[in-house]
Amino acid sequence: MAQDVKKVVLAYSGGLDTSVILKWLQDQYQCDVVTFTADLGQGEEIEPARAKAEMLGVKEIFIEDLREEFVENYVFPMFRANALYEGAYLLGTSIARPLIAKRQIEIAKETGADAVAHGATGKGNDQVRFELAYYGLNPDIKVISPWREWDLNSRTTLIEYAEKNQIPVPKDKRGEAPFSVDANLLHISAEGKVLEDPGVDAPEYVYTRTVDPERAPDKAIEIEIGFERGDAVSINGKTLSPASLLARLNELAGANGIGRIDLVESRFVGMKSRGVYETPGGTVLLAAHRAMESITLDRGAMHLKDELMPRYAELIYNGFWFAPEREMLQAAIDRSQEHVSGSVRLKLYKGNVITLGRESPNSLYSEAHVTFEEDSVYNQRDAEGFIKLNALRLRLAARLGDKA
Q1: Which one, out of 119, 246, 265, 335, has a CA that is 20 to 30 A from the CA of 230?
Q2: Which one is catalytic: 19, 67, 94, 97?
Q3: pLDDT tens across 202-225, in order?
Q4: Among the options 19, 126, 231, 273, which is catalytic?
Q5: Alpha-carbon distance 365 to 8, whole Å?
Q6: pTM above threshold 0.85
Q7: Which domain holds residue 166?
């Protein structure tokens, strides 16, 4: 049953699905619709969304370039944690949803809207991510999820609805899409259709941001990434804004076949799904950040971070960016990054990221202590007591075992 809604802010891409949703909201809820289109670096023109929204009678249209905010306030904090979901996924889609949701809630307040809407399906993770963020920012907001309400449950019925309501359907959208795509500056993902059988190779045409590693240049390239307090700030000595830096890493890594991953992940809603992801710049950034931490983080802090990381990654994947436990973990992670500054040299070659060297004014690496040559700072005899104290419980347990 439709809620009593006066005005709704729709996350609007201008594509077939959200254009149909826009018209459906107008018809079903008899309400004003505000559209919000975000440029997160997806690589597509977003201004055409304005013309489509105007054609459908929308008076309040928001189109915003959020690339810098996306990388600085969402991607970079996540990379300080070295976050990987299920040991592999760099969370490219997951980390974009809280920013879109935040702006929807802000726009709802600015325009006096009492509801928000999204185009995520009832089978996926994005519906959860959007809605947890909505409620975390405005507990009284009304949420509309058309895919859980309407009976337009196939591409054919979507197109029929669009044609009936004079919504333009491009020729390339009339056939069945070979797979579903999500893109932003951090990654591009492909799921469904030709990719649904996890035992079948992904066709090469699925990949759009990376060259086939086998066809990548035969000559490696070397780059140097500079860090300040855990965030990348420069490439080869040139200071770049967060979004510009990630875009440049995407170019360099993609040209060398870096960042492809084919995985089966565990969705929050309970099912397994197969996805093919390309995260070229992020793959390089993760390797560089870990290399920077290797000489600047204390062992205890580093190992604790590694223990916390799976929980942190799961919170982001499941949509809890605005939850108190994620913010608590973020505070601890950010505290650990105070001395993670310096530079890392890397080689990019045919799908591989190879660390060549790392330097930092805050380095904890002491050549005087680790040298195989004679030194005056470490008494090797001290190791005997260290070992015996650590072996004490093992020796006691072993003696008890002898009596059994």
Answers
A1: 265
A2: 97
A3: 999 999 999 999 999 999 999 999
A4: 126
A5: 56
A6: yes
A7: 7-66+93-176
